[in-house]
Amino acid sequence: MADVKEKEMAVKTETRPAQEQKRQPVVMTPPVDIYETEEGILLLADMPGVPKENLDVHVDKNRLTIRGEIGDIIPKDITPLYVEFNGKAFERAFTLGPDVDVSKIEARMNAGVLNIFLPKSEEVKPRKIEVAVE
Amino acid sequence: MYRPWFSLSDPIWQNFDRLNREMEEIFNENYFATPGASGTRTPIPAVNIGETPDKVFIYVFAPGLDPKGIELTVEKNMLTISAGRDTSTDIGEDQKVKGYYRKERFSGKFRRVIALPDGLDTSQIEAKYSNGILSISIKKKEEEKTRKIEVAVS
Known about the structure:
The complex is a heterodimer. Chain A contains one helix and nine strands, in the order H-E-E-E-E-E-E-E-E-E. Chain A is mostly beta strands. Chain A has a single domain (27-122), classed as Immunoglobulin-like. Chain B has a domain at 41-87 and 107-143: Immunoglobulin-like (Sandwich). Chain B has one helix at residues 11-27; strands at residues 46-51, 55-61, 71-75, 78-85, 97-103, 108-115, 120-130, 133-140. Chain B is mostly beta strands. The chains are: A mainly beta, B mainly beta.
């Protein structure tokens, strides 16, 4: 009898983790706005919970990758009651056009919004040519 | 002339098919869990709720807000959060916009009402906004707190 009981218990403990794993999205895709201005490309991404120091913006050839880990805000002894947002990090990659000056990219983080400015290289900027009148 | 009663290439059925796919997306389990994965479809910020032995914590994932514009009210056990943002203000005034490639971020106002669990002392609410998350903590009433009871040995 004792044997049977032990088996039942073993089965129960095995099924539990599988159920919890079902809610898996850990890396999320941040929504973005991308504008083209006269001076360059402006990219804005919503990454709530990501502090400045957890942010990684890098360019590899023509690929821009943004990644941010969500910081620790939750007390250690917390028990979840209701969960809609299940992410641990945000990540998204973009292909850059040839007219972006990669060496002059600027990034700022404010209230969970990443703001990246990618200036156009000097050659492609519209220029006004003064016509000298004699 | 023979014409099938309905065919899938008929525009009406194509629309139906699209509707079907959108419905599937909406009822997908991860719809709320991934704000932004489906672009503009999640204007309402996601909310997580948790508890510790003496407090209940509510986290609202709403980046880019002006903290002064966040309005929090409590009535009985209903907590209402209203706020908004205008994403066009993220563009610097010196920038001349020629057009856009993507516009997925929510712009506008939102309001969310959360039913609080019983046994909270709503006169003791703290709220702070940092890194785009609004964290609200509410103390539990004394009698609702988890207590340890010592077992006396006689």
